[in-house]
Specification:
With 119 residues, the protein is mainly β. The protein is built from no helices and 11 strands. The strands form 2 sheets. Strands 2, 4, 5, 6, 9, 10 and 11 form a 7-stranded mixed beta sheet that branches. A 4-stranded antiparallel beta sheet has the order 1-3-8-7, with no helix packed on it. The protein is globular.
Amino acid sequence: QVQLVESEGGSVRVGGSLRLSCVASGIIFSAAAMGWYRQSSGNQRELVAMISSSGETDYADSVKGRFTISRDNAKNTLYLQMNSLEPEDTAAYYCAAGWSFTTQTMNYWGKGTLVTISS
């Protein structure tokens, strides 16, 4: 059974930083494409960042230069370093795993963690 467990989010001031992590089990983590998605109130879930099994990355335009996705295959852990946070970054953040970085099709999802940015 595949499990993706996100770290606890939190409330951060505008301009602050936060690092999310996601621990995966029941999956060959090193072979999976991993991603972070987010969903804010009233909006559809959107891709934030994705990393392939070989380390290739892709980011939403809204987070380029501010967020960094990384992975530690030895720890089966995915990270999202978020800097220069803005109120628009407030959302539930979801970790996801799939088998195609090209199609960005995700097969497994975490339960999500809430990130709130306050002014």
